[in-house]
Amino acid sequence: MNWLERKKVLLVDDDPTIRDSMRLFFDAEGCQYTSVESAERALEELASGSYDLIISDYKLPGMDGLEFLGRIRESHPTVAKIFITAYGGPGLFSQAEQMGVAGCIEKPLTPEKVETCLALIGETRINRR
Asked: Is pTM, for the whole model, over 0.85?
């Protein structure tokens, strides 16, 4: 996925296995990858740097992923956002889309699901130019 090369990616997920596996995926794509375990840490990251892609899990310690996405909706409107959850469903994904999310992925995460979602986001971004 050429559009990802040299992009800054922030993953918000409390599962270290997911953070590590996503690191391998995004490193292979040539991205600058950062991961944090909570929405509060993600807000700190966003205060000190900019990102091109933010991926947030729903169930997090403290603030959940939807609240986090709502908080950054206006401050980071051009950042591509992906929402991931094992507790999905049309209602939850609809709420995420209202928060400005470009894509939703239901867990378990697989490289194929991530690639499909990222390809759709890339297509949308290229077509908007």
From this structure: yes
